[in-house]
Hints:
It is a single chain. This protein is globular. The strands form three sheets. Strands 1-2-5 form a three-stranded parallel beta sheet, sandwiched between helices. Strands 3-4 form a two-stranded antiparallel ribbon. Helices cover about 50% and strands about 15% of the residues. The longest helix has 20 residues, at about 125-145. By secondary structure, the protein is an alpha/beta fold. The protein contains ten helices and seven strands.
Amino acid sequence: xxxxxxxxxxxxxxxxxxxxxxxxxxxxxxxxxxxxxxxxxxxxxxxxxxxxxxxxxxxxxxxxxxxxxxxxxxxxxxxxxxxxxxxxxxxxxxxxxxxxxxxxxxxxxxxxxxxxxxxxxxxxxxxxxxxxxxxxxxxxxxxxxxxxxxxxxxxxxxxxxxxxxxxxxxxxxxxxxxxxxxxxxxxxxxxxxxxxxxxxxxxxxxxxxxxxxx
Length: 214
């Protein structure tokens, strides 16, 4: 329905009006609660929902894992979000072209957390590091091509978030914040799962670092 309404030629500016739906909702809430801050979790496909979310956001966090999909996703962001290397026939019809034509601001890339890394001596293992280096190379190339679309210095954009192992399962299953996870055994559907001090400390430290950078 979003795509169908946005594609109409009448009324004029239908695309922009539809794509401002989430912007308008955020603005209305912030009128009542000026200190409100929003975190929007995008689905992994570039759907109409993703387009509305990106236009309502001012900054984007791009979590990556050590795989080829994350590396390829950096080029996808450049093309789908910022219109880089889009064929000439689609220069005005693509999302970035439409947004610019209607005067809608695109968000900046703020952080690229290197997520779920397997670590040795508090550093990502060689295999993970090799993939993360390639991801950083592609992000740096995107930054060189689109320098105004980045809001954090390059030195602060990348950081490792270690694999949380049992911690993430316990947080999800028990419905508790990370700060309330306790060391020791936890019951997960009748199976005893152990949360140890070291992985919990490393994960909390990484998340605290992420929060400081927001």
